[in-house]
Amino acid sequence: MTQKDGAGPRHVLFLQGPLSELYSLLGERLRQEGLRVSRINFNIGDALFWRAGGARAFKGKKEAWRGFIARYLDQNAVTDLVLHGDQRFYHRIAIEEALVRGVYVAVSELGLLRPDWTTFERNGTSVQSHFPEDPAAIRAIAEAAPAVDFKPLYKTSFRRVAVPDMVYNLLNTALWFLSPHYQRHTPGFPPVEYMAHGLRMLGKQRRERIVALLLDDLKISGQPVFLVPLQLDGDFQIRANSPYSNMAEALEEIVNSFHRAAPQNAVLLVKSHPLDDGTGGHLRTLRALAHGYGLAGRLHFADGGDLMAMAALARGAVTVNSTAGLELMMRGVPVKTLAPAIFDIQGLTDPKKLDLFWNQPHPVDVEMLAAFIKAIAATIQVRGTIYDEQGIRHLVDTMSERLIFRLCNEPLGFADKAPRRKKLDDLLLAHSRFTLKGREATATRSSSPKAIIGSL
User: Fold this and answer.
1) What is the pLDDT of residue 453?
2) The domain at 11-157+380-404 falls in which architecture?
3) What is the dihedral of CA 11, 16, 19, 25, to 10 degrees?
4) Which CATH architecture has domain 203-366+421-455?
5) What is the pLDDT of residue 449?
6) pLDDT lower than 50: segments of the chain
7) Would you give the end-to-end CA distance of the chain in angstroms?
8) What is the pLDDT of residue 301?
9) Residue 41 and residue 52: Cα distance in Å, rounded?
10) What is the pLDDT of residue 239?
C-alpha cells in the first residue's frame, strides 16, 4: 500500500491547500498509513494551517521557484504531489516539473456539485481536467458507478468561510516582510477587498428588494429572459481558462450578439456573483453597453438575488465557463458557454454560435445530464466540504483512500490527454485575431460601446 512499483516508500509532498485544516489532517492520516509526508510553505499563513510536520519554507523570488521545486522533487524522491488549484503560479510550475518526473499529481478545488462536494482530480481541473468529454465514455462510467444520494449532508458555516480567509490574508499582509517575494494568487489587496465587502453588506437588503421587484416585473411582462451569471474578474476561470482578461470583455461580446441577433422582445438579465465586492464596475459597464447598443429597457442588472429564482424565468443562459451553468442545466435551462468548461459536453450545452442561440436554445439532454452528474460524482468529486467539521472528516477519509490507492479519476475517468486544452488554445488564437481586428476598427469609431466603457 505504501510502495510505488516496488521502488521504495511513497513520499507525498503538499503545497498550498484550501484555507482549513483539511490538508494538515490529510497529511497526518497518510503518515499514519506509513507514507512519508512533507510540505512547502510560502508564507506565515501557510505555516499556520499546517500542523502535520515535515515543512520547509520557500522564500525566494518567483524566478527561483522552478529550480527549487525541481531539486526538491529529485533530492527527496517525491512520488506524489497534492495541491489546491492548478493555476496558481507556484502550483502550475510544480505540476509541470512533477509530471515530467512521473510524479502522481492530485489537485483539489471547489466542488462542481454544490453545496457539499469537493473536486479531487488527477493532474488538473477545468481546462486541464482529464475527465473525458466523449458522451459514450461518460455513459460507460455512469453505468458502472453506484447510485448516489445527492441530498446535502453538510452545512456551510459562514464562520468557517470568512474567519480562515481573513486570518490567512491579514496575517500575510501584516507580516509581509517574512516572505517579501511571495506572489499572491489573487489580484486584489485583501484589506481593501474586506472593506469593500463590509460596505457592500450594508446595502444588501436594499439590493435584494430591488432585484425582487425586477423579477416580478419580468414575470408579469412575459418577455423571454436570457440570463448571464457573472464570474469574478480575479477567478482563474476567467484569467487562465478563458480568452477574456475580465468580465467586461465577455459582456461586450454577449451584449453585442444579443443586440444583433436576439428577438426584439427579449431581455438580457445579468446577475452579479455572490462574492462580488462591488468594485468591478459592472453597473457602469452595463449602462455604457445599454446606451451604446440602444438596449435601454432590455438590459437589466440584478445585483443580488437568487440564481434559481432567475432560472425559473430564463429561456436560456450564457456563461463563460461558470459552474453556475451546470446548476442551471439541472433546472432545465439551456446553456451556452463561451469557453471550455468541464460540463461543455455534446447533449448538454448548446453547440451553436452565440448569435443562433438566442432564437433557438438547444434543450438539455436530461438523460445525458444524469449520466454526467453520476459519472463525475464517482470519479472526480468527493463528498464533503471544508466548511463543516464532519464534512472535513469525510473528506480526509475519502481523499486519503484515493491517494493511497491512486484512485483519482477512477474508474475510467482519466483520458490520456486533457481534452479541453486544445479547445482553449484554438479559442485564444481566434480571440487574439478578433481583438486585433476590433482595435483597428474602433480606432475610427470613438463612439463605440468599448470606447464608452473606457471613458467612464
Assistant:
1) 39
2) 3-Layer(aba) Sandwich (3.40)
3) 10
4) 3-Layer(aba) Sandwich (3.40)
5) 44
6) 1-6, 436, 439-456
7) 61
8) 98
9) 12
10) 96
Residue of 5, 29, 424, 43 whose CA lies nearest to 240? 424
pLDDT of residue 439: 42
Which residue matches cell numbers 445530464? 369
pTM summary value: 0.93
In the numeric block, which cell numbers belong to residue 444?
475610427
* pLDDT (0 to 100) of residue 431: 85
Which tens digit of pLDDT belongs to each residue from 375-424?
999 999 999 999 999 999 999 999 999 999 999 999 999 999 999 999 99
Location of each CATH 3.40.50.20 domain in the chain: 11-157+380-404
